Amino acid sequence: MENTHRYIAKIIVETESALAVGSGQSGLETDRLIASDCNDLPYIPGTSLAGVIRHAYEAMTDKFQTDALFGFQDLKANKGEGSRIIFSSAHLVTKDGDKIIDGLRDTDYSRDDFYRHFFTLPERDHVRMTEKGVADTKEHGKFDEQLVYKGTRFGFEVELIGTADDKTDWESLLNIFAQPYFRIGAGTRNGFGEISVDDIKARSYDLADEDDLSEYLNKTSSLNDDYIGFKSISLAKKDGSKWKPYSVTLKPEDFFLFGAGMGDLDADLRPKTEKVICWKDGRAAFSEEQILIPATSVKGAISHRLAFHYNRISPPEAANQSFERPDTSSVLNEITQLDFGVNLDELKNKASNDDAWAKAKAQIEGMNFGDFVKDSANWKAFTNKMDTLKTAEKENKRPVGEHNPAVRALFGYAKQDKKSPDEGQIGHVIISDVHKKKKSEKIFSHVAIDRFTAGGIDGALFQEKVATLDAFKLEIMVHDDAFPKEDPNVMDAWKATMEDLKKGWIPLGGSTTKGHGVFIAHKT
């Protein structure tokens, strides 16, 4: 069937959390740099948009329907088909909200107070962990990455080449942008890439119609085109999504600390803060520094408690075995059947001073009960079971981290090595970052103690700045596939973990052993 229709939409999205669309390059100060356009401003490549949309569309439909829309390549069958979907790159919306900065501009944005922030982007520090839950120092586990500010707006265009029958598929495609689980870029399971649709205008062209054909041919590739005939449309959130929301409003009982890894003029260690972009009356402005509660920190604390509850509910197989000592009578019965190396019947007719008697007496006197027990089959079975238990404990059959079944099911796991047939799995839990205005701060002074003298170490005085704020809502989404039917203990462990979170039994942030980081559920 001839593709006589063109469906086009112009979309403006706003980042609801920090965005990580990397360039694949590293800098002198940062390990992962953000992709930037010809104006040195952040942008989202069209390939990144195409990839995440295709993945989301296939999860909503099936592979056959996705291939028909996005194309495919089958090298074995030597056949393929090009994509009927065209994505432009997403470029920055101006601070006045009226234009999109696409194409090379004769403007030095680094001299503008607003755009200057995009030349000093926020950074997040990360530490790659080993299977033991400690920093991977051998493989240089410490790294950092640039991010795009929360509140940044991008504009781009999507076009579908098709027929009149593709209208339903087109609407389904656009609705993906409105789904709460939809994320763009890297680190989507670490709180990054959440977006909202600020504006979307769309129309279709019937190329068999002379007027539509003329308007389509006169349309330029500029994202600032007049877009004649385009109308604003509303997107619908899909109720039948497999993602289930878990929302809890938390309030800190006292102070907490999500450390920035550095200090300021007041203290050696301060809370992590970031600026965000706020839009008012269509104009953008940067806020003051806001307290950041990173999703990665919350995820780490939750996954650790999840492993605890799963191991509590579902102990290792070796721990469930019964290791009762064998009955003494059964061992004695075996002893009577043992060959002592002495024929008593032959000794009956021999004199007591016979060499055979002397040899038998010495052999019997040298025997002890322990020798007989070691040869007992029941005793050997018991000791083998005990060895199995010891081996199980040494091999850590109560796994944590990525080795714990519940953590693997909900938070995913990485591929172990290149030769491993297991390709790894993306996490089934999405947690969003939280940015809030700080309510108050306090500085605590500490002294490092000498473990031998129990006195203060000279020059070891340091300060840490902690913060508190009002109640905030923590948004968590979990996919249905996170709970395997063959292991109901995963669901039970997750429910127990959420209850602990509400009761304030999961401290969040740093310095929790000093009383910081207690959050309890707050009724609004």
Textual characterization of the structure:
Residues 318-323 have low confidence and may be disordered. The chain has twelve helices and 21 strands. With 524 residues, it is of the alpha+beta class. Helix 5 (295-313) runs antiparallel to helix 11 (405-411) and helix 5 crosses helix 12. The longest helix has 19 residues, at 295-313. It is 25% helix and 23% strand. Strand 13 and strand 14 (283-286) form a beta hairpin. Strands 1, 4, 5, 8, 9 and 10 form a six-stranded antiparallel β-sheet that branches. Strands 16-20-11-21 form a four-stranded antiparallel β-sheet. Strands 12-15-17 form a three-stranded antiparallel β-sheet. It has three domains: 5-239, no CATH class; 242-315 and 401-524, no CATH class; 328-394, no CATH class.
Please supply descriptive tags for the structure shown above.
524 residues, alpha+beta, 3 domains, six-stranded antiparallel sheet, four-stranded antiparallel sheet, 12 helices
Q: From the structure provided, what is the oligomeric state, counting identical versus distinct chains?
A: single chain
Termini separation: 57 Å
Number of strands: 21
Mind telling me the C-alpha Rg?
A: 34 Å
| Low-pLDDT ranges | 318-323
